[in-house]
Amino acid sequence: MPQKSAIISEAVRLRALFEQAGAVPVETDILQPAGILLDLYGEDIRARAYTTHDPLRGEQMLRPDFTVPVVQMHMEHGAEPARYTYAGEVFRRQEDDAERASEYLQVGYEVFARNNPAQSDAEVFALFHRMLAPLGLRAATGDIGILMAAVEGLRTTERRKAALMRHIWRPRRFRALIDRFSGRAPVPESRAALLAMSDPMAEAGPLIGLRGVREIAARIDALREDASAAPLSETEVALIDAILAVRETSPFALERLRDISVDLPAIGPAVDLLAARLDALDGQGIDVGALQFEASYGRTQMEYYDGFVFGFTAELRPDLPPVATGGRYDALTRRLGNGGEIPAVGGVIRPGLVLALGEAQ
């Protein structure tokens, strides 16, 4: 890996290219309030972030990425439309991979614009594509919005839909829920025994932990409601599986998704957006006929992506993480906007990997 001074110089060069594209450079604090990130991602964020306690500010996290603080900054006093760029360290714990860096530099580009999201998606992707073209990387795209639309279109309870939506970014948990809601997986014995009791709270004994009686009773009621709900149909499960299996060049992927939308109309608007995005990418000079689309792409990234996603990887170096990733995160602006919202899309590049791959050529 190149020396840090060289990586910093490369970060400055990349950020200057984003500035030439119209982005305003911004800075964010390295220490971020943990409460905001925990509200967004739950306790899972602790597994990949460094935390500390400040006697005045409470629990803090070393910045795991830039997007959340940049969105907060924009929603508080940003103009519209807006383009931002930034460069600096991010910190991620790597307990399962000692070879991966736990501290590294990121350079990013974010676009906030209300008009024509397909065009904004294409603008961001094409800019990254041009900047990284000398490295000969493999580009992949996806659209989490299609899977989200499919979940919304299921004929099941709102509670089950909410559970599936919450775990879209956890593929194993999502699959386990699909299997449970469809009846493919048996109800755990402990849950069956609980639901068989006429009054589980009467036999509960002393309460241990933070949950009160009302919260526990509400959870039992939710389990009873779920147990009485009709299972997901085999047809709907097959349609979800068909969406997740789409992995082709973009025109063929679009054709396949249009076929699926005949039986699952809920995904129709998201598929239309994909078609508009491909037209916009073509207008940006991208060879969409060769561009890969994977319906499951991006599901293990940070959980704020809710639409178009993309990444650039070195096919000859499978040991390396993606050189660049990005996507659309409209819902994040709603959650951080205090009543406001604005469509947003962006991405990040790791300058250390850009240098390392450039030196290897």
Q: Could you describe the 3D structure shown?
A:
This protein is an alpha+beta fold and 361 residues long. The chain has three domains: 4-24 and 64-150 and 238-360, Bira Bifunctional Protein, Domain 2 (BirA Bifunctional Protein, domain 2); 29-62, no CATH class; 157-232, no CATH class. It is 45% helix and 17% strand. The strands form two sheets. A nine-stranded mixed beta sheet has the order 1-5-6-12-11-10-7-9-8, sandwiched between helices. α1 packs across α14 (351-360).
Beta-strand percent range: 15-25%
Helix content: 40-55%
Number of structural domains: 3
As for the CATH topology of the largest domain, it is: BirA Bifunctional Protein, domain 2
pLDDT < 50 stretches = none
GO molecular function, one term: glycosyltransferase activity
Subunit structure: Homodimer.
Pfam families: tRNA-synt_His
Domain Aminoacyl-transfer RNA synthetases class-II family profile: 14-351
What topology does this entry show?
Elements: H1 4-20, E1 24-25, E2 31-33, H2 34-41, E3 51-54, E4 58-62, H3 67-77, E5 82-91, E6 103-112, H4 117-132, E7 138-143, H5 144-152, H6 158-166, H7 171-181, H8 189-196, H9 213-228, H10 234-245, E8 247-249, H11 250-263, H12 268-283, E9 292-294, E10 308-313, E11 324-328, H13 330-336, E12 344-349, H14 351-360
Parallel strand pairs: 1-5, 7-9
Antiparallel strand pairs: 2-4, 3-4, 5-6, 6-12, 7-10, 8-9, 10-11, 11-12
Keywords: Glycosyltransferase, Transferase
GO molecular function, one term: glycosyltransferase activity
Domain Aminoacyl-transfer RNA synthetases class-II family profile: 14-351
